[in-house]
Specification:
The protein has one domain. Helix content is 52%, strand content 0%. The protein is built from four helices and no strands.
Length: 71
């Protein structure tokens, strides 16, 4: 995830690492980083998806035209 620019503190939260409670960060930073974790995991999923199926990155979905348009 470092390659995807996920900050270390967000990665630690994703992995469930618990602060030892020491220092300013352990005492005052109670923010859960839910939005940041979600974006990081979505970026990771997209990265893995491109590794598994690199050809899928250039597929464009087309709308189906109604039969009335063809008449």
């Amino acid at each position: 995830m470092a390659r995807l620019n996920v900050p270390p503190h967000v990665l630690s939260k994703i992995l469930g690492h618990v602060s030892d409670g020491q220092g300013v960060t352990g005492i005052y930073n109670r923010y859960a980083y839910d939005d940041e974790k979600r974006r990081a995991v979505e970026a990771w999923a997209q990265y893995i998806g491109h590794l598994i199926d690199p050809s899928g990155s250039n597929i464009v979905a087309l709308r189906e035209q109604a039969h009335a348009d063809q008449a």
